[in-house]
TrEMBL record:
This is Phosphoglycerate mutase. InterPro entries: His_Pase_superF_clade-1 (IPR013078), His_PPase_superfam (IPR029033). It comes from the Bacteria.
Amino acid sequence: MRRSLLDLLRDGGYVLYTRHGEATVGEDLPNLNFQYCFTQRNLSEVGRRQAIYYGEILRSLQIPISYPILTSPFCRTIETAQLAFRRANVRIDPFWVEIYKLSGNLSDWKQKRILDSLQSELEIKPPQGSNKVIIAHSFPKGIGLGEIPNIGTVIVKPLGQGKGYEIINKLSLADLDNLLR
């Protein structure tokens, strides 16, 4: 199983939806401002090491990645992407804030609108022979891609626009590390 998953990833065609590295304890401030990292939770030292190691693992496994890496505008997601894949390879996409909002109190129609938009995003196939990486947030239990640990990666197979997507696997950083062995 492990070998075949690695072969699939090396052939490309997947979205690697990854949660940011471990963040500091606490909560984002009510007056959160994306321009000011002090208004939000940021990566801890452990989170920074996780991000660097995540990039090293993907390179060591020779998993082809298409650039840019997409991230939410939160400082913790941007820093995770920059540490893993270098600053020049990162593009901020405001859509991924919507995933963060799923953890709040949303009306059913607003949640459905976000999940429909998520589906549209995850249906897009990456360039031939490569994989797309998105670094954003976990989901509430049972919603979207579900709960994701720090630097956890959901392997998604886009089926094409209007055709949905398939979740192939969910891997923790330790699971990815085991693929190296």
